[in-house]
Structure formats: structure tokens, C-alpha cells
From TrEMBL:
GO terms for molecular function: peptidyl-prolyl cis-trans isomerase activity. It comes from the Eukaryota. Residues 1-75 form the AIP/AIPL N-terminal FKBP-type PPIase domain. It comes from Oesophagostomum dentatum. This is AIP/AIPL N-terminal FKBP-type PPIase domain-containing protein. InterPro entries: PPIase_AIP (IPR056277), PPIase_dom_sf (IPR046357).
Length: 118
């Protein structure tokens, strides 16, 4: 795809059975974590969706499956050298190398907050 290009693809019912579960998982991953500790039991098996996904549009799609059309609009492209990898993407060696940099950045941010407070 080129920058500013729009593409679409259609997904038939036969290929759509796992979409609600995958979409729920991705949506849950980007939700901010709630404060405090939750000890509520959540199923991780086939029973997980017996009470629904927690998202009305996904629950409706499970009750009344229909083909979906996905539309993508490419807004920008980031080159590998322009991208800063997140910690989960680093090798163990890269993680060790990043410790000192992260410590210094954390100390600097802490100092800035202390200055703002005082």
C-alpha cells in the first residue's frame, strides 16, 4: 500500500468464527487497567463467551453472524530506523543495554516532577 491509499477486504462467514473472540482480546489489551486488585474469575476456555464479550457489537455479531468488510487507510509509514522498539520486542541483550538509559530517563522525569511540585 502507498501512503494515503485506502484498501478493503471482505471476510465471508466461514472465515469469521473467531473474529469476535480475537477482537475482544485486542480491545481488552488496550483498555487501561483498573486500580486495585481484581480477583474475579474469568474463563479462558470455550465457556469464556457464554456471558458475551462485553462489547454489544461483538455480541450482536455472535448472535447474528454476517460477512464483514474491513477498510484500511494508510496514514503513514515508519521506517525501521525511525521506530523505537518497545520493551517486549527487545532481545534479552537489548533489554540489559536499555536499563541504564531507562534509569537516567526516570531520574530526569522524577526531578522534573519534584520541581513542579515545589
Amino acid at each position: 500500500m502507498l501512503v494515503d491509499e485506502v484498501s478493503q477486504f471482505d471476510v465471508e462467514l466461514t472465515e469469521l468464527c473467531t473474529y469476535p473472540m480475537v477482537s475482544k482480546k485486542l480491545r481488552d489489551l488496550v483498555k487501561p487497567e483498573e486500580k486495585g486488585h481484581s480477583h474475579a474469575h474469568e474463563h479462558m476456555c470455550a465457556a469464556a463467551l457464554s456471558a458475551g464479550t462485553g462489547y454489544p457489537e461483538l455480541d450482536e455479531l455472535m448472535r447474528d453472524p454476517r460477512p464483514l468488510r474491513f477498510i484500511f487507510h494508510l496514514l503513514s509509514v515508519t521506517q525501521p530506523e525511525e521506530y523505537e522498539a518497545e520493551s517486549w520486542q527487545l532481545t534479552p541483550e537489548q533489554k540489559i543495554q536499555s536499563v541504564e538509559t531507562l534509569r537516567l530517563e526516570g531520574n530526569q522525569l522524577f526531578s522534573q516532577v519534584c520541581l513542579l511540585i515545589s
